[in-house]
Design brief:
membrane; 91 residues; 0% strand; single chain; transmembrane helix; elongated; mainly alpha; transmembrane
Length: 91
């Protein structure tokens, strides 16, 4: 069975082909864009991981030499800021 026997004009066939080509192209562009976005995110993550490892190695070396951060490695608890109207309550 051909398109002509089903009552479709050549215009409708060309229009359907153009629509399908547009959809395929649009999805392809989305996939390519997503690939490059993920590639950039992976590179940023790798750089953060390397910076974190370098920082940890640097901190470990400083601790071995007795040159630790705040107060020789003691923990200092964070404090809440007392701004205007802040009563310190959560709710």
């Amino acid at each position: 069975m051909t398109y002509q026997s089903r009552g479709r004009s050549i215009f409708e066939v060309v229009l359907a082909i153009c629509f399908v080509a547009f959809l395929i192209g649009f999805i392809t562009v989305l996939c390519i864009g997503n690939y490059f976005r993920a590639k950039r995110a992976q590179e940023r993550q790798r750089q953060r991981r390397e910076a974190k490892q370098a920082s940890q190695n640097n901190n470990a070396n400083n601790m071995e030499r007795g040159m630790g951060g705040k107060g020789g490695g003691e923990y200092e608890a964070p404090t809440l800021p007392q701004g205007a109207g802040a009563s310190g309550r959560l709710l």
